[in-house]
Amino acid sequence: MSIPFELPPEDRVLSPRTGYTRAHWEAVADGLLWAAWRWSTPGCALLDLPGRPSHSGVRSDGLEGFARTFLAAAFRVAGAGGDDPHGWLDRYARGLAAGTLTPGRDDTESWPLILDHEVQGQPMVESASVALGLRLTAPWLWKNLDAGVQDRVEEWLRGALRHVPAPNNWYLFPYTVAGFLESVGRGDAETAAARQRALELMEGWYRGEGWYADGDGRAFDHYNGWALHLYPVLDAHLGGDGELAARYGDRLRAHLDGFASMFGADGAPLHFGRSLSYRFAASSAVSLG
Questions:
Q1: Residues 178, 70: one domain?
Q2: Residues 59, 129: one domain?
Q3: Does this model's pTM top 0.70?
Q4: How far apart are the C-alpha atoms of 164 and 20, rounded to whole Å?
Q5: Greater confidence, 129 or 260?
Q6: Which of 78, 93, 96, 194 has a CA-to-CA distance to 157 between 20 and 30 Å?
Q7: What are phi and psi for residue 211, nearest 5 degrees?
Q8: Are residues 245 and 277 in the same domain?
C-alpha cells in the first residue's frame, strides 16, 4: 500500500524493531495535516472534510476538523520544542481569530456556540481539543495572539464551563478547558468548580484495577484509555501536580496491564463498548500508553 507522503529512511540502529524514529512520525503527522488542510475555509477556522454531514451538522463538523487536527499539530510542534517548519501554528492562529470573531453566526468562518449536550453538545467535545492544543503550544501560539483574540477564545471556551455535559466522560471536557485557562493565568471560581466536579465524578466512576465506568452503572468501553485516563494524567503532567500524577498514573498503569490481555495473538481485540468506530484503534491505548 502506498502513502501520499514521503518517509525518511529507516533507522534500524536507533529503532531496531520498526526502523521508525520521531522523524517518521513527524512526517506522518505533516502528511495527514497537509491532506486535511486542503479543505479549510479561507479564514482557516473550519476544515470541511468531504462526505455526508454528521447529525451535529456541517458547521460543527468543520469545527471538529479544526480541533482534532489542531491536536495533531500541537503534539507535533510541542514535541519538537516549538520547531514548526510548515507553519502549522500560524494557520491555527488565523483560525482561532476568525472562528471566535462572531461565534454562532451563520457565515463562512464562525464557530458554533457551546450549549448543553442535548441542545448542541458536540462543540463542547471540540473545546477540549482546542484547549489542550493551546496548552501544549502556549509558548509559541497563545502568547503571540493579540489580547483581543485571547479574550474571545477564552469567552468561547467558557461555554464548556457554563453548560451541561453528557453524564459520562464529557465532564472531562470542561475539566480540560479549565486546566488550560488556569495554566495561562485566567482561572477563577468557575474553572475551579469545573475541575473539582470532574475529579469527584472520576472517583465515583472508578471500579478498581485500572477501570472506570463511563458514567453511572456498567458502562465500559474504549474511552477508558482514550479519555478517562488520558485527560487526568496529561493534565497532571502538564501542571506538574505530583500527587495527581501518582494517583492517576498508577491507575493508568494498572489499566494497561490488564487491557493488554484483551487482544489475541493475531492482534484482534475483544469487542466491547458502544461504538464500532472506536474499535478501529483499539490497540492505541496499549501502544501509546
A1: yes
A2: yes
A3: yes
A4: 43
A5: 129
A6: 78
A7: -115, 135
A8: yes
Count of CA atoms in the C-beta half-sphere (13 A) of 136: 22
| DSSP 8-class letter at 269 | B
Question: Which whole number is the average pLDDT over 4-23?
Answer: 91
**Pair (146, 264) in one structural domain:** no
Residues 96 and 174 in one domain: yes
Q: Is 230 exposed, middle or buried (0-12, 13-18, 19+ CB in 10 A)?
A: buried
Cα within 13 Å of Cα(271), Cβ side: 6
Give domain status of residue 17, yes or no. Answer: no
Is the pLDDT score of 73 beyond 60?
yes
Residues 6+ apart with CB under 8 A from 123: 60, 63, 111, 112, 113, 114, 115, 159
pLDDT band per the 50, 70, 90 thresholds, residue 2: low
Domain range for residue 147?
39-190
Q: Which cell numbers in the block locate residue 103?
A: 461565534
Phi, psi of 263 (to 5 degrees): -125, 140
Q: At what angle do helices 58-79 and 122-136 cross, to 10 degrees?
A: 20
